[in-house]
Write a structure and sequence with these properties.
There is one protein chain. Helix content is 37%, strand content 17%. The protein is of the alpha/beta class. It has a single domain, classed as 3-Layer(aba) Sandwich (Rossmann fold). The structure holds guanosine-5'-diphosphate and ligand FO1. Ligand FO1 binds next to helix 2 and helix 6. Guanosine-5'-diphosphate binds next to helix 1.
Length: 321
């Protein structure tokens, strides 16, 4: 019985924030929600005013629920910032822009965590209440914080990204807590049991790199029989948004699609690159990865659906050696 696109395949995606959310939005339009599991980076998680913020989990959930502020790619559309303004009056730091409705999510999450629930349980609750049927799982329930060592200090990733606008030279990325971080329930199982694993176009160092740093994840990706497809977040030697290019350059990694492929080469089957990077196909194939090119820039909904269809199409025709 032939499979129709997205009909029967169980898909597990590894995701960061905004870049991943766009592809997952497209994928969700063509794949039944119960076939899709999304493992999300929590290295960006941070605390403000005693509240636990999980930016990437929220970006994915808000996007799939149709709530996201599409212009920014994060936060809730048409949100107001009255609470933040009052916090500023009281002298608190307000560089991380938490909207009023967004704050409700962080309050709810924090109340549940304080009552003893795990982050994965809280996430399941939030997703159910937002009406989502896709399975969204944090990479780990354990403490994990991405820290950036600059020339003068070591700071949380959000401080590097938002407060300092990625202006520091990155000397080292520290995955704090990685040694003890166990995968959340369902992470390893969903990789092993999937028919297709998609590595979303996310920052390879601080979104996908963190997920790969969780104990057992890389091994599961090597062991699974799933077809493993990654989409390059680098197009024509530059980023669509975010600091991945600056970070790679600072760390002496060439800013190119093939460098990203190299970072995943121990487990990857197929690498989807932009047409602009067609000259790099041979270089990627020398890594033992099938390289395919298409227009990977997602602006409108049609672009997201087209890329999602393309990925499922190449995965369905790929045969492992
Ligand atoms: P993250 O998702 O949390 O890792 O952070 P960002 O949302 O900043 O994006 C991560 C990466 O996704 C960046 O390196 C972007 O270049 C890439 N990205 C964002 N939008 C697109 C897109 O439409 N197509 C492709 N190919 N990459 C994208
Ligand atoms: N990104 C910003 O550039 N500035 C902000 O003030 C900001 C606030 C914010 C609040 C909630 C949330 O869920 C995400 C938020 N982001 C903000 C996005 C976030 O910092 C990053 O895009 C992700 O961590 C990277 O995926």
């Amino acid at each position: 019985m032939p499979k129709f696109l997205g009909e029967c395949d169980t898909i597990t995606a590894l995701a960061g924030g905004v870049g991943a959310a766009k592809l997952l939005d497209g994928l969700s339009s063509i794949v039944q929600p119960d076939k899709l599991t999304i493992i999300v980076n929590t290295g960006d998680d941070c605390e403000f005013y005693g509240l636990h913020i999980s930016p990437d989990l929220d970006i994915i959930a808000y996007t799939l629920a149709g709530l996201v502020d599409e212009e920014k790619g994060w936060g809730i559309k048409d949100d107001t910032f009255n609470c933040l303004e009052m916090l500023r009056v009281y002298g608190h730091d307000t560089w991380f822009k938490l909207g009023d409705r967004d704050l409700a999510t962080h309050i709810h999450r924090t109340v549940m965590l304080r009552s003893g629930y795990k982050l994965s349980e809280v996430t399941r609750d939030i997703c159910a209440k937002l009406g989502l049927r896709q399975k969204i799982i944090p990479m780990s329930d354990d403490y994990f914080a991405t820290k950036i060592r600059t020339d003068k200090d070591t700071i949380h990733f959000q401080e590097y990204l938002v407060k300092r606008c990625s202006s520091d030279v990155v000397r080292e990325i520290i995955y704090e807590g990685a040694e003890n971080a166990k995968p959340a329930p369902g992470v390893i199982e969903s990789i092993i049991d999937a028919e297709i694993v998609i590595v979303c176009p996310s920052n390879p160092l601080v979104s996908i790199g963190t997920i790969l740093a969780v104990n057992g994840v890389r091994q599961a990706l090597k062991e699974t029989k799933a077809k493993k497809v990654a989409v390059s977040p680098i197009i024509g030697g530059t980023v669509v948004k975010g600091p991945a290019d600056k970070m790679m350059r600072s760390l002496g990694i060439e800013v190119s699609a093939s460098s990203v492929a190299k970072l995943y080469s121990d487990f990857l089957d197929i690498f989807v690159m932009d047409e602009a990077d067609a000259p790099l196909v041979k270089e990627v194939e020398r890594l033992g990865i099938k390289a395919v090119v298409t227009d990977t820039l997602m602006k409108a909904k049609e672009d997201k659906i087209r890329l999602a269809r393309f990925i499922l199409g190449v995965a369905s025709t790929f045969r492992k050696a």
